[in-house]
Amino acid sequence: MRQTNSFGTLIFIIIFGVGGFLAYVVSGVAGTVTAGCIGVGAFILAVIASSAIRVANQWDRAVILRLGQFHALRGPGLFFIIPVFDAIPYWIDTRVITTGFKAEKTLTKDTVPVDVDAVLFWKVVDPKKAALDVADYESAISWASQTALRDVIGKTMLSDMLEGRDKISSLLQKIIDERTEPWGINVISVEVKDVLIPSGLEDAMSMQAQAERERQARVILGDAERQIAEKFAEAGRSYEGNPVAFHLRAMNMLYEGLKENSTIVIVPSTAVESMQLGGLAGMTALTMGLGQDRTKVPPIVPRIPEDGVNGHQELALKP
Known about the structure:
Layout: H1 6-27, H2 32-52, E1 53-56, E2 60-66, E3 69-74, E4 77-80, E5 86-93, E6 97-107, E7 113-124, H3 127-132, H4 137-154, H5 158-163, H6 165-180, E8 185-196, H7 199-240, H8 243-259, E9 264-268, H9 269-274, H10 280-289, E10 300-303, E11 312-317
Antiparallel strand pairs: 1-4, 2-3, 2-5, 6-7, 7-8, 9-11, 10-11
Helix pairs in contact: 1-2, 4-6
């Protein structure tokens, strides 16, 4: 990349301006020929001076060739060269440079075509090698990155590529750095931006993931049912040895059911007998236990249904 020499242009203007002014002053005393010689000499001196002065930016390094051979690296700041003998074919940028590269329709190890986009972060650490050992280091590093990406994709399964991008990035960085190290280039990092797969395969993978989630949900539900059954069995063993606790539990369940404004509750006759709800005293006790607001909960009377259902009694709420 060739740089503009603004400082050299300024030196040219100053020297040529001073020479032109001297030529104008001398022309009235020594004649036109002398003034012309002064003007020509000032022009030649200005050209040489402006060509010899160069200024490199903080991030630039100038590669100087003297008569076709490498002479030196110059920069940053002000430096001088010998016009005609010295040439500056390259200005090397030593900052971190980003290069995007991608691989299209590349087959993975399990023969799935994918498109992969990646970004390469690199910098020139040896400007001499970058200028002399490779013709175009920017193009060379771009091609080296693409070929390395295709090699890595061909040796990687699709599942590993989708799940382990960091591993692929590290492998790419290592491969590209080995290829570009002789050129004086250091690869800082490689980032895989995106992995695109065919739409049909994407739909199939989505269905597979959905089926896997449904399977896990069913397994979790079944495990929850098993735990509930174990707790019920444990509760049954507790009630088996404690009839009073079982009686209180049955009373609480009946209370909760009647509290929800139910009109008829059908329970086994054995449960009514165990809770002592068959007599008037039992009905009165249960009614009083439902609360003081009798307008919301009507009194309860037991009755045997007319259809002759055996083994059950109805607890009817009388309005």
